[in-house]
Amino acid sequence: MVLRPPVEPMLAKALERLPPASALPGGLVLQPKFDGYRTLVFTPWPGPGPVLIQSRRGHLIQGRFPDLAAAAEVLPAGWVLDGEVVVWAGEELSFESLQRRASAGGRTAARLAEALPAHFIAFDVLQADGVELLRRPYAERRATLEELFAGHGLAAPWTLCPETYDLATAQEWLTSWTRVPGVEGLVVKGRRQRYLPGARGWYKIRRRDTAEGVVGAVTGSLRRPQTLLLGRYDHERVLRLVARSTLLHPDAVREVGTRLTAARPGHPWEGTRFTTSWGSRTPLEVVLVEPDLVAEMDVDTAQGHGVWRHPARFARLRGDMAPDEVTGFDEGPGPGEGTEPGEG
C-alpha cells in the first residue's frame, strides 16, 4: 500500500526519567527532542507530482514552506519522511520564527522563506521507493534513512537526527544539549519497534528547570484556587504573564488559599483578557489577587517571548523571597534557578 496524506504520526507519552532497557522491544534508542513542528514529507509516487508536507494534524502545509518543498526535489520518488521542521536564529532554534513561517502563505511565505529558511530534522522513514515500511522494525527503518542521507549526500536543509544506544550519552544530552533553546529533552524508541500511526508508543523526557514567578491571579476562588497565573516584572515595572500552573494538589490548595489576598484597585492585570492555553483564543475566567506572593515552579524549556508554553508545576511558596527579587521578564533563568534532568 502506498502511503498518502493524511497519515497520523506516531506519538510519545511523557515520562519523568529514562526508562529501563526492557521498556521497549529490542532495547532503547535515544534521540534529542527538538521544539519544532512535527511534519511528514511525501515525495510523489508513482510518476511526477508535487511534494506534499503534512502537519501533525493532517493539514497540507507545503504552501507555507515553499523552500522546503523545493529542496525536497533532490529526494527520490516514493519516500515519506517523519521529522521536525525548525528555524535557526544564529546558534539557537527560534520557535517564534517558526510560528511566523507556519502562519504565512502566498507572497509572505515566499518572503519569509528567504529571511527565515526552514530546516527538516529527519528521525524516521515510513516509506522508501514506494514501499511502505510501517511494519519493519525501527532499526531497519533507521538504516534505510541513513542510506538515503549517505547515498544522496543530503545536506542543509536536511539533517539526520542524532541518536545513541548509550544511556550515559543520552543523560549528557539531557543535561547539556537542552541548554540550547529549541532542544527540549529526549525521545525514546525501541530498536525492534514498529511504526504505529496515532499511537503513543514512544516515550519523551523533557528537561525541567526551577524558576520563580509572582502570583498575580488564580482560577477557582481565593480560598480554593485551582491553578495559578504567574508573572514577572519587565524593565518598566509592568507585570508580564509568564506561566500558568497545572491543577494544584489538595495540600497546595490549602497552602496557597490561606495566603491569597483579593486584588485592590489598580491591579496590573485589570482589564487583561486571559486564554486557556498558550496560543489559544478561548477566554479564561480568573480571580485577580494582590501580587505579593512568590511561587517556585517546575518548568520545561519550551518558551516563546519569555512565556512558558506548557503549564508549570507548582512546587512551593517562597516566603523568603519578595516579588521584586524575582528574575525580570525575559532575563533568563536567573541565579539560583537550576536544572533537574530526568535520571536513568
Automatic annotation (TrEMBL):
UniProt-listed CDD domains: Adenylation_DNA_ligase_LigC, OBF_DNA_ligase_LigC
Region (Disordered): 322-344
Ligase keyword on record: yes
Molecular function GO terms recorded: ligase activity
Biased composition (Gly residues): 331-344
Annotated keywords: Ligase
Catalytic reaction list: ATP + (deoxyribonucleotide)n-3'-hydroxyl + 5'-phospho-(deoxyribonucleotide)m = (deoxyribonucleotide)n+m + AMP + diphosphate
Organism superkingdom: Bacteria
Keyword flag Ligase: yes
Domain (ATP-dependent DNA ligase family profile) ranges: 120-207
InterPro entries, per the entry: Adenylation_LigC-like (IPR044119), ATP-dep_DNA_ligase (IPR050191), DNA_ligase_ATP-dep_cent (IPR012310), NA-bd_OB-fold (IPR012340), OBF_LigC-like (IPR044117)
Family recorded in the similarity comment: Belongs to the ATP-dependent DNA ligase family.
Protein name: ATP-dependent DNA ligase
